[in-house]
Amino acid sequence: MTQEIHGTVADGFENVREEFAACVAGERPDYEGQLCAYVHGRKVVDLWAGTDADALYGVFSSTKGAAALVVALLVQDGTLELDRKVTYYWPEFAAEGKGALTLRELLAHRAGVVGTDSGFTLAELADDRQLAERLADQRPFWRPGTAFGYHALVSGALSNEVVRRATGRTLQEVYQERIRAPYGLDFFLGLPAPQEPRFRTTQPMDPTPEEQALLDAAPTGPHTLASIAFNRHAAEPTDLASLPNMPLVRAKGPASVGGVASARGLAGMYAAAISEVGEQAPLLKPDTVAEFGQFHSVGYDLVARAHKSFGLGFQTTADTWHPFLGAGAIGHSGASGSQAFADPWSGLAYGYTRRRFAFPGGAAPENGRLARAVHRAALAR
Fold first, then answer.
1. Residue ranges of the alpha helices (H) in the chain?
2. Which of 191, 41, 160, 33 is closest to 93 using CA atoms?
3. N or C end of the chain: which has fewer CB within 10 A?
Protein backbone atom coordinates (compact mmCIF):
# COMPACT_ATOMS: atom_id res chain seq x y z
CA MET A 1 0.00 0.00 0.00
CA THR A 2 1.49 3.35 -1.08
CA GLN A 3 1.60 6.09 1.53
CA GLU A 4 -0.49 9.18 0.89
CA ILE A 5 1.56 12.35 0.39
CA HIS A 6 0.38 15.34 2.40
CA GLY A 7 1.28 19.01 2.26
CA THR A 8 1.91 21.71 -0.29
CA VAL A 9 4.46 22.97 -2.79
CA ALA A 10 4.76 26.38 -4.41
CA ASP A 11 4.26 26.86 -8.14
CA GLY A 12 7.26 25.49 -9.98
CA PHE A 13 8.01 22.87 -7.32
CA GLU A 14 5.50 20.25 -8.45
CA ASN A 15 8.32 17.91 -9.49
CA VAL A 16 9.55 17.90 -5.89
CA ARG A 17 6.23 16.45 -4.77
CA GLU A 18 6.49 13.80 -7.49
CA GLU A 19 10.04 12.93 -6.44
CA PHE A 20 9.01 12.70 -2.79
CA ALA A 21 6.13 10.40 -3.73
CA ALA A 22 8.48 8.20 -5.75
CA CYS A 23 10.92 7.95 -2.84
CA VAL A 24 8.13 7.09 -0.40
CA ALA A 25 6.77 4.44 -2.79
CA GLY A 26 10.11 2.62 -2.56
CA GLU A 27 10.05 2.53 1.25
CA ARG A 28 8.46 0.13 3.72
CA PRO A 29 4.69 0.48 4.23
CA ASP A 30 5.30 2.01 7.67
CA TYR A 31 7.50 4.83 6.34
CA GLU A 32 7.29 8.17 8.14
CA GLY A 33 9.13 11.24 6.91
CA GLN A 34 9.00 14.94 6.17
CA LEU A 35 10.52 17.29 3.59
CA CYS A 36 10.64 21.08 3.79
CA ALA A 37 12.48 23.75 1.83
CA TYR A 38 12.76 27.53 1.65
CA VAL A 39 14.10 29.71 -1.16
CA HIS A 40 15.27 33.20 -0.18
CA GLY A 41 13.32 32.96 3.07
CA ARG A 42 10.03 31.81 1.55
CA LYS A 43 8.73 28.32 2.25
CA VAL A 44 8.25 26.50 -1.07
CA VAL A 45 8.01 22.82 -0.03
CA ASP A 46 6.18 21.37 2.98
CA LEU A 47 5.47 17.64 2.54
CA TRP A 48 5.08 14.61 4.78
CA ALA A 49 3.95 11.00 4.67
CA GLY A 50 2.97 8.38 7.22
CA THR A 51 2.56 10.81 10.11
CA ASP A 52 1.19 14.26 10.85
CA ALA A 53 2.76 17.58 10.00
CA ASP A 54 3.71 18.34 13.59
CA ALA A 55 5.65 15.15 14.42
CA LEU A 56 9.15 15.55 15.86
CA TYR A 57 12.04 13.15 15.32
CA GLY A 58 15.50 12.59 16.72
CA VAL A 59 17.87 14.16 14.19
CA PHE A 60 21.16 12.90 15.62
CA SER A 61 24.13 14.78 14.12
CA SER A 62 21.97 17.28 12.27
CA THR A 63 22.10 18.80 15.78
CA LYS A 64 25.70 19.79 15.04
CA GLY A 65 24.42 22.34 12.53
CA ALA A 66 22.56 24.17 15.30
CA ALA A 67 25.68 24.09 17.48
CA ALA A 68 27.80 25.46 14.64
CA LEU A 69 25.29 28.24 14.00
CA VAL A 70 25.54 29.35 17.64
CA VAL A 71 29.33 29.48 17.43
CA ALA A 72 29.14 31.36 14.12
CA LEU A 73 26.89 33.99 15.70
CA LEU A 74 29.29 34.44 18.62
CA VAL A 75 32.26 34.76 16.27
CA GLN A 76 30.32 37.31 14.23
CA ASP A 77 29.58 39.22 17.44
CA GLY A 78 33.26 39.23 18.39
CA THR A 79 32.61 37.18 21.54
CA LEU A 80 34.68 34.29 20.20
CA GLU A 81 37.81 34.43 18.03
CA LEU A 82 38.57 31.52 15.76
CA ASP A 83 42.35 31.75 15.99
CA ARG A 84 42.58 32.02 19.75
CA LYS A 85 43.72 28.92 21.57
CA VAL A 86 40.94 26.92 23.15
CA THR A 87 42.76 27.33 26.46
CA TYR A 88 42.14 31.08 26.36
CA TYR A 89 38.51 30.24 27.14
CA TRP A 90 38.98 26.84 28.80
CA PRO A 91 42.38 26.53 30.54
CA GLU A 92 41.86 22.93 31.70
CA PHE A 93 41.80 21.76 28.08
CA ALA A 94 45.60 22.13 27.93
CA ALA A 95 46.12 18.76 29.65
CA GLU A 96 47.93 15.98 27.78
CA GLY A 97 49.39 18.16 25.04
CA LYS A 98 46.27 19.91 23.77
CA GLY A 99 47.31 23.43 24.75
CA ALA A 100 48.19 24.72 21.28
CA LEU A 101 44.87 23.83 19.63
CA THR A 102 42.87 26.79 18.32
CA LEU A 103 39.11 27.15 18.28
CA ARG A 104 39.26 27.00 14.46
CA GLU A 105 40.96 23.59 14.65
CA LEU A 106 38.56 22.37 17.33
CA LEU A 107 35.57 23.16 15.12
CA ALA A 108 37.20 21.38 12.17
CA HIS A 109 37.40 18.01 14.02
CA ARG A 110 41.16 18.28 14.47
CA ALA A 111 41.38 18.04 18.29
CA GLY A 112 42.03 14.27 18.45
CA VAL A 113 39.76 13.71 21.46
CA VAL A 114 37.00 11.71 19.78
CA GLY A 115 36.27 9.92 23.05
CA THR A 116 38.00 8.64 26.15
CA ASP A 117 39.98 5.49 26.88
CA SER A 118 37.22 3.96 28.99
CA GLY A 119 34.15 5.42 27.27
CA PHE A 120 31.13 7.25 28.65
CA THR A 121 28.03 6.37 30.59
CA LEU A 122 24.62 7.30 29.21
CA ALA A 123 24.35 10.05 31.83
CA GLU A 124 27.64 11.54 30.59
CA LEU A 125 26.61 11.33 26.93
CA ALA A 126 23.45 13.26 27.74
CA ASP A 127 25.29 16.03 29.60
CA ASP A 128 27.71 18.27 27.69
CA ARG A 129 29.28 19.56 30.94
CA GLN A 130 30.20 16.05 32.05
CA LEU A 131 31.56 15.17 28.62
CA ALA A 132 33.73 18.29 28.62
CA GLU A 133 35.20 17.46 32.02
CA ARG A 134 36.17 13.98 30.81
CA LEU A 135 37.57 15.23 27.50
CA ALA A 136 39.71 17.94 29.09
CA ASP A 137 41.79 15.26 30.83
CA GLN A 138 41.98 12.89 27.86
CA ARG A 139 45.20 12.32 25.93
CA PRO A 140 44.39 12.91 22.24
CA PHE A 141 44.39 9.96 19.85
CA TRP A 142 46.47 11.93 17.32
CA ARG A 143 48.60 15.02 17.66
CA PRO A 144 46.11 17.90 17.73
CA GLY A 145 45.93 19.88 14.53
CA THR A 146 47.89 17.39 12.40
CA ALA A 147 44.96 15.31 11.13
CA PHE A 148 41.20 15.15 11.44
CA GLY A 149 38.53 12.64 12.38
CA TYR A 150 34.82 12.90 13.06
CA HIS A 151 34.16 13.76 16.72
CA ALA A 152 30.77 12.09 16.45
CA LEU A 153 29.44 12.18 20.01
CA VAL A 154 31.57 14.95 21.51
CA SER A 155 32.08 17.88 19.11
CA GLY A 156 29.04 19.68 20.47
CA ALA A 157 30.23 19.27 24.04
CA LEU A 158 33.63 20.73 23.12
CA SER A 159 31.98 23.74 21.48
CA ASN A 160 29.51 24.05 24.34
CA GLU A 161 32.26 24.35 26.93
CA VAL A 162 33.97 27.13 24.96
CA VAL A 163 30.62 28.94 24.63
CA ARG A 164 29.86 28.52 28.33
CA ARG A 165 33.27 29.79 29.43
CA ALA A 166 33.06 32.81 27.12
CA THR A 167 29.45 33.83 27.78
CA GLY A 168 28.34 32.25 31.06
CA ARG A 169 25.50 30.64 29.09
CA THR A 170 25.28 27.13 27.67
CA LEU A 171 25.16 26.64 23.94
CA GLN A 172 21.59 25.36 24.35
CA GLU A 173 20.57 28.55 26.15
CA VAL A 174 22.08 30.78 23.47
CA TYR A 175 20.40 28.70 20.77
CA GLN A 176 17.01 29.00 22.48
CA GLU A 177 17.28 32.75 23.01
CA ARG A 178 18.78 33.83 19.70
CA ILE A 179 17.64 31.22 17.18
CA ARG A 180 14.83 28.87 18.19
CA ALA A 181 12.51 31.21 20.09
CA PRO A 182 12.67 34.25 17.75
CA TYR A 183 11.75 32.11 14.74
CA GLY A 184 9.44 29.66 16.51
CA LEU A 185 11.47 26.74 15.19
CA ASP A 186 10.43 23.14 15.71
CA PHE A 187 14.06 22.25 16.38
CA PHE A 188 14.85 21.75 20.05
CA LEU A 189 18.12 21.29 21.93
CA GLY A 190 16.36 20.05 25.04
CA LEU A 191 12.77 19.04 24.36
CA PRO A 192 10.30 20.76 26.74
CA ALA A 193 7.92 18.38 28.51
CA PRO A 194 4.80 19.87 26.84
CA GLN A 195 6.29 18.94 23.45
CA GLU A 196 6.88 15.29 24.36
CA PRO A 197 3.59 13.99 22.85
CA ARG A 198 4.82 15.13 19.42
CA PHE A 199 7.97 13.00 19.56
CA ARG A 200 8.08 9.83 17.45
CA THR A 201 10.53 7.19 18.63
CA THR A 202 13.31 6.28 16.23
CA GLN A 203 12.78 2.87 14.65
CA PRO A 204 15.82 0.61 14.21
CA MET A 205 17.51 0.00 10.89
CA ASP A 206 15.98 -2.89 8.96
CA PRO A 207 18.71 -3.86 6.48
CA THR A 208 18.26 -6.29 3.63
CA PRO A 209 20.46 -9.43 3.74
CA GLU A 210 22.86 -7.75 1.31
CA GLU A 211 23.03 -4.61 3.42
CA GLN A 212 23.57 -6.65 6.58
CA ALA A 213 26.49 -8.41 4.90
CA LEU A 214 28.10 -5.04 4.22
CA LEU A 215 27.58 -3.99 7.84
CA ASP A 216 29.06 -7.26 9.08
CA ALA A 217 32.13 -6.79 6.88
CA ALA A 218 32.98 -3.40 8.40
CA PRO A 219 35.78 -3.28 11.01
CA THR A 220 34.26 -3.65 14.48
CA GLY A 221 37.22 -3.99 16.86
CA PRO A 222 36.31 -2.53 20.27
CA HIS A 223 39.29 -0.18 20.40
CA THR A 224 39.36 1.20 16.87
CA LEU A 225 39.04 4.95 16.54
CA ALA A 226 35.54 4.45 15.15
CA SER A 227 34.50 2.37 18.15
CA ILE A 228 35.92 4.94 20.55
CA ALA A 229 34.25 7.81 18.67
CA PHE A 230 30.86 6.09 18.83
CA ASN A 231 31.36 4.80 22.41
CA ARG A 232 31.09 1.14 21.40
CA HIS A 233 34.02 0.25 23.69
CA ALA A 234 32.36 1.46 26.90
CA ALA A 235 31.26 -0.85 29.70
CA GLU A 236 27.75 -0.25 28.40
CA PRO A 237 28.28 0.23 24.65
CA THR A 238 26.15 2.93 23.05
CA ASP A 239 23.34 1.87 20.75
CA LEU A 240 23.37 4.94 18.56
CA ALA A 241 19.90 4.43 17.10
CA SER A 242 18.30 4.40 20.55
CA LEU A 243 19.80 7.66 21.84
CA PRO A 244 16.88 10.01 21.04
CA ASN A 245 14.44 7.45 22.44
CA MET A 246 15.91 8.03 25.89
CA PRO A 247 14.07 10.77 27.84
CA LEU A 248 17.30 11.98 29.47
CA VAL A 249 18.90 12.65 26.08
CA ARG A 250 15.83 14.44 24.74
CA ALA A 251 15.52 16.57 27.88
CA LYS A 252 19.15 17.71 27.96
CA GLY A 253 19.66 18.04 24.19
CA PRO A 254 23.43 17.36 23.97
CA ALA A 255 24.79 19.52 21.18
CA SER A 256 26.34 16.68 19.17
CA VAL A 257 23.40 14.32 18.76
CA GLY A 258 20.50 15.29 21.03
CA GLY A 259 18.36 17.52 18.83
CA VAL A 260 14.68 16.83 18.20
CA ALA A 261 13.13 18.43 15.13
CA SER A 262 10.74 18.40 12.24
CA ALA A 263 11.80 19.02 8.66
CA ARG A 264 10.18 22.45 9.04
CA GLY A 265 12.45 23.17 11.99
CA LEU A 266 15.60 22.07 10.16
CA ALA A 267 14.85 24.02 6.98
CA GLY A 268 13.60 27.03 8.93
CA MET A 269 16.85 27.29 10.88
CA TYR A 270 18.98 27.31 7.74
CA ALA A 271 16.62 29.75 6.04
CA ALA A 272 17.06 32.12 8.99
CA ALA A 273 20.83 31.65 8.82
CA ILE A 274 21.22 32.95 5.25
CA SER A 275 17.99 34.76 4.30
CA GLU A 276 15.56 37.39 5.45
CA VAL A 277 12.61 35.53 6.97
CA GLY A 278 9.52 37.63 7.50
CA GLU A 279 10.86 40.98 8.62
CA GLN A 280 13.96 39.55 10.31
CA ALA A 281 17.40 39.97 8.77
CA PRO A 282 19.59 36.91 8.15
CA LEU A 283 21.32 35.64 11.27
CA LEU A 284 24.67 35.43 9.50
CA LYS A 285 26.43 37.97 7.31
CA PRO A 286 27.72 36.64 3.97
CA ASP A 287 31.33 36.82 5.17
CA THR A 288 30.48 34.69 8.20
CA VAL A 289 28.75 32.07 6.06
CA ALA A 290 31.77 32.01 3.74
CA GLU A 291 34.20 31.59 6.64
CA PHE A 292 32.27 28.75 8.25
CA GLY A 293 31.63 27.05 4.91
CA GLN A 294 35.25 27.23 3.79
CA PHE A 295 37.07 23.90 3.60
CA HIS A 296 39.12 23.40 6.76
CA SER A 297 39.59 19.62 6.93
CA VAL A 298 39.67 17.72 3.65
CA GLY A 299 40.95 14.23 2.94
CA TYR A 300 41.19 11.01 4.91
CA ASP A 301 39.01 11.04 8.01
CA LEU A 302 40.75 8.88 10.65
CA VAL A 303 37.44 7.86 12.24
CA ALA A 304 35.34 7.29 9.14
CA ARG A 305 38.27 5.74 7.20
CA ALA A 306 37.07 7.54 4.09
CA HIS A 307 37.30 10.86 2.28
CA LYS A 308 35.42 13.55 4.19
CA SER A 309 35.42 17.31 4.40
CA PHE A 310 34.42 19.80 7.07
CA GLY A 311 34.14 23.52 7.40
CA LEU A 312 33.83 25.02 10.88
CA GLY A 313 31.31 22.87 12.73
CA PHE A 314 29.36 22.30 9.52
CA GLN A 315 29.85 19.63 6.91
CA THR A 316 30.85 21.19 3.59
CA THR A 317 27.67 19.86 2.05
CA ALA A 318 28.50 20.37 -1.64
CA ASP A 319 31.53 18.09 -1.26
CA THR A 320 30.20 15.65 1.31
CA TRP A 321 26.74 14.93 -0.08
CA HIS A 322 25.41 17.06 -2.93
CA PRO A 323 27.96 18.19 -5.54
CA PHE A 324 25.34 20.19 -7.44
CA LEU A 325 25.13 22.74 -4.62
CA GLY A 326 27.09 25.94 -4.67
CA ALA A 327 30.57 26.07 -3.18
CA GLY A 328 30.39 27.02 0.48
CA ALA A 329 27.03 25.38 1.21
CA ILE A 330 26.77 24.61 4.92
CA GLY A 331 24.80 21.90 6.68
CA HIS A 332 24.88 18.61 8.51
CA SER A 333 23.38 15.17 8.21
CA GLY A 334 22.19 12.88 11.00
CA ALA A 335 22.76 9.16 11.47
CA SER A 336 19.08 8.26 11.17
CA GLY A 337 18.92 9.77 7.68
CA SER A 338 18.08 13.40 8.41
CA GLN A 339 19.71 16.09 6.29
CA ALA A 340 19.68 19.89 6.45
CA PHE A 341 21.66 22.57 4.67
CA ALA A 342 21.77 26.09 3.30
CA ASP A 343 23.09 26.98 -0.15
CA PRO A 344 23.84 30.73 -0.21
CA TRP A 345 24.19 30.79 -4.01
CA SER A 346 20.63 29.65 -4.71
CA GLY A 347 19.10 30.87 -1.43
CA LEU A 348 17.95 27.30 -0.77
CA ALA A 349 17.41 25.95 2.75
CA TYR A 350 16.54 22.26 2.99
CA GLY A 351 15.35 19.93 5.75
CA TYR A 352 14.49 16.22 5.72
CA THR A 353 13.59 13.88 8.56
CA ARG A 354 12.57 10.23 8.73
CA ARG A 355 11.58 7.91 11.53
CA ARG A 356 13.33 4.65 10.64
CA PHE A 357 17.11 4.59 10.87
CA ALA A 358 18.42 4.53 7.31
CA PHE A 359 21.11 2.28 5.85
CA PRO A 360 24.04 2.76 6.20
CA GLY A 361 23.68 5.75 8.55
CA GLY A 362 24.18 9.40 7.72
CA ALA A 363 22.09 11.23 5.15
CA ALA A 364 19.52 8.77 3.81
CA PRO A 365 20.02 7.89 0.10
CA GLU A 366 16.76 9.57 -0.93
CA ASN A 367 18.22 12.93 0.05
CA GLY A 368 20.24 12.94 -3.16
CA ARG A 369 17.11 12.78 -5.29
CA LEU A 370 15.09 15.14 -3.15
CA ALA A 371 17.76 17.80 -2.74
CA ARG A 372 18.52 17.76 -6.47
CA ALA A 373 14.82 18.17 -7.32
CA VAL A 374 14.45 21.12 -4.95
CA HIS A 375 17.69 22.71 -6.17
CA ARG A 376 16.64 22.44 -9.83
CA ALA A 377 13.29 24.03 -9.07
CA ALA A 378 14.96 26.82 -7.09
CA LEU A 379 17.34 27.66 -9.94
CA ALA A 380 14.50 27.66 -12.46
CA ARG A 381 12.61 30.38 -10.60
1. 14-25, 63-77, 86-89, 103-107, 122-125, 128-136, 155-167, 171-175, 181-183, 209-217, 225-229, 247-252, 263-274, 286-293, 317-320, 366-380
2. 160
3. N
Confidence at residue 343, expressed as pLDDT on a 0 to 100 scale: 97
pLDDT computed for residue 1 by the predictor:
57
Exposed/middle/buried for residue 233 (C-beta within 10 Å: 0-12, 13-18, 19+): buried
Q: What is the Cα–Cα distance from 178 to 149, expressed in whole angstroms? A: 30
Q: What average pLDDT does the structure give for the chain?
A: 95
Burial class of residue 306 (count of CB atoms within 10 Å of its CB; 0-12, 13-18, 19+): exposed
Give me the sheet containing 339-343, strands edge to edge.
Answer: 5-9, 42-49, 33-39, 348-354, 339-343, 330-333, 315-316, 306-310, 297-301
Kindly list the distances between the CA atom of residue 43 and the CA atoms of 139, 211, 266, 323, in Å, as whole numbers in the listed order. 46, 36, 12, 23
What does DSSP assign to residue 299?
A: E
pLDDT one-digit tens code per residue, 260-304: 999 999 999 999 999 999 999 999 999 999 999 999 999 999 999
Q: What is the pTM of this model?
A: 0.97
The pLDDT of residue 321: 83
Contacts 24+ apart (CB under 8 A), 72-77: 72/273, 72/284, 72/288, 72/289, 72/292, 72/312, 72/313, 73/174, 73/178, 73/179, 73/283, 73/284, 74/163, 74/166, 74/167, 74/174, 75/288, 75/291, 75/292, 76/284, 76/285, 76/288
Contacts 24+ apart (CB under 8 A), 121-124: 121/234, 121/235, 121/236, 122/236, 122/238, 122/246, 122/248, 122/249, 123/248
Distance from C-alpha of 344 to C-alpha of 21, rounded to nearest angstrom: 27
CA distance 312 to 46: 29
